[in-house]
Amino acid sequence: MRHYETESVVIIPDHKEVDRWTLKTILKQVEIPEEEFKRYL
Hints:
Elements: E1 2-3, E2 8-9, H1 20-29, H2 34-40
Antiparallel strand pairs: 1-2
């Protein structure tokens, strides 16, 4: 996934389920709000 405003690239583990805190940490590192991430789903 790429965040075009900050030009951040994030790799999300390809697991059936990703732990909530793991996902929150990833989003925080790349400065993507949770709501914006949800739009990609």
